[in-house]
Design goal:
Layout lengths: L2 H7 L4 E4 L8 E4 L2 E4 L8 E4 L3 E7 L2 E4 L9 E6 L3 E4 L2 E3 L14 E6 L2 E6 L8
Parallel strand pairs: 1-3, 2-4, 3-5, 4-6, 5-7, 6-8
Antiparallel strand pairs: 7-10, 8-9, 10-11
Length: about 130
């Protein structure tokens, strides 16, 4: 596992889901959530901590739901219908064409806004 993920998920409550979340499924957890699969449109994850998706994230996610502004959302393909971190909410513009990147991405709060960046191991704390 990547050093950043290991440091942030170790010693904390983490729910591991080894399945794809389908439309209508909802996960609420008081800790981190790791999905080994996709999160399809219409599915929802709400976590007090970080959310990591080893697949395509196309549903609704809320990391840091208990107010943790340091929470992140990481996915191989980050294209959520809505993304929240702590109290900040973002979504793609109406009519936006979804382009799936060729690299994992991480969403986090930086300077009071949600930003999405290429996930580069070793550079997450910058």
């Amino acid at each position: 596992m990547n050093q950043f993920l290991a440091e942030n998920l170790d010693n904390e409550k983490t729910l591991l889901l080894q399945k794809t979340l389908r439309s209508g499924q909802s996960i609420h957890y008081d800790g981190n959530v790791v999905v080994l699969g996709d999160v399809n449109p219409g599915a929802e994850i709400v976590a007090a901590g970080h959310i990591v998706v080893f697949g395509a994230l196309r549903g609704v996610v809320h990391a840091g739901a208990s107010g943790e502004a340091g929470a992140t959302v990481t996915a191989f393909s980050l294209a959520p219908t809505q993304l929240r971190i702590a109290s900040l909410i973002t979504r793609p513009p109406d009519g936006a064409v979804v382009v799936f990147p060729e690299h994992p991405e991480i969403a986090k709060i930086k300077d009071g806004s949600v930003v999405i960046e290429r996930f580069l191991p070793g550079s997450e704390k910058a």
